[in-house]
Automatic annotation (TrEMBL):
InterPro entries: Rce1/LyrA-like_dom
A Pfam family reported for this protein in Swiss-Prot or TrEMBL: Rce1-like
Record flagged with keyword Transmembrane helix: yes
Residues covered by the CAAX prenyl protease 2/Lysostaphin resistance protein A-like domain: 130-221
Biological process terms in GO annotation: CAAX-box protein maturation; proteolysis
Keyword S-adenosyl-L-methionine attached: no
This protein's name: CPBP family intramembrane metalloprotease
Keywords recorded for this protein, A-Z: Hydrolase, Membrane, Metalloprotease, Protease, Transmembrane, Transmembrane helix
One GO MF term attached to the UniProt entry: metallopeptidase activity
Provenance organism: Paenibacillus xylanilyticus
Listed transmembrane segments: 9-27, 47-65, 96-118, 130-148, 160-177, 183-201, 208-229
Length: 230
């Protein structure tokens, strides 16, 4: 695809993101203000505040309301589909289910030290609460973010600019959206890389269930390293 043909959808995508980013920010601040006023526990506040990500979908209701609930959301997807590492379409090909298992093992090994260091300082009751809130957070956040980013945004951006550019742009914006949550630029870049593979999983499986599973696992890992609630 030529660069000139990407300029118009690129401008449209940036405007949609900026509008969604702004609306999500103020919605999250409003939710946090209510939770603080009501004395809601921080863990519950953090979970509830993730509903602010829905604001990213609102611009799509104006531009293309039919794509807010694309058919991919209703599909389980094909876990036997082939996906290549590291470039989704290029690299070592594996069935999707094997790719997810390898990803899970590598991520667990890579974060083992941080998980052990954080959990080792917790008492038994604290650990139970962490796992309880962590599971709820992981399910809520993963379903919402996958619907928004891989269900709605990726689906729309792929229609405008093709699979490759749509995946790259969605991944970058997904990473950037976390900057408003207080994460550093480097962490946002890491999230963008994760978003690239989750988007690739969604594209190759033709559904978002596999990417939701991947996202839930990642969120549980982040919870156990202390990244979410500490």
């Amino acid at each position: 695809m030529q660069i000139k043909s990407l300029i118009r959808p690129g401008i449209k995508i940036i405007l949609i993101f900026l509008i969604g980013y702004t609306m999500s920010h103020f919605l999250r601040e409003w939710i946090n203000a209510i939770c603080y006023a009501q004395g809601v526990p921080d863990e519950v506040r953090i979970i509830v505040s993730r509903f602010s990500v829905i604001a990213y979908v609102l611009p799509f209701l104006v531009i293309s309301p039919r794509n807010v609930f694309p058919s991919e959301i209703l599909r389980v997807g094909n876990f036997r589909a082939s996906i290549s590492f590291p470039f989704i379409w290029r690299g070592k090909a594996d069935p999707l289910w094997r790719f997810l298992i390898i990803f899970a093992v590598i991520m667990a090994l890579g974060t083992f030290y941080f998980i052990f260091s954080y959990l080792n300082d917790l008492e038994r009751n604290e650990l139970k609460l962490l796992l309880y809130y962590g599971l709820i957070f992981s399910l809520v956040n993963s379903i919402l973010e996958e619907w928004v980013w891989r269900g709605v945004a990726l689906h729309q951006y792929v229609q405008w600019s093709g699979n490759v550019y749509g995946l790259i742009v969605t991944s970058l914006l997904f990473g950037m959206s976390h900057y408003d949550l207080g994460f550093s630029v480097w962490v946002c870049i890491a999230f963008a890389i994760g978003g690239f593979f989750m988007g690739g999983v969604a594209i190759r499986s033709k559904g978002i269930v596999a990417s939701i599973v991947m996202h839930v696992y990642m969120n549980l890992i982040f919870t156990m390293t202390g990244m979410i609630f500490s």
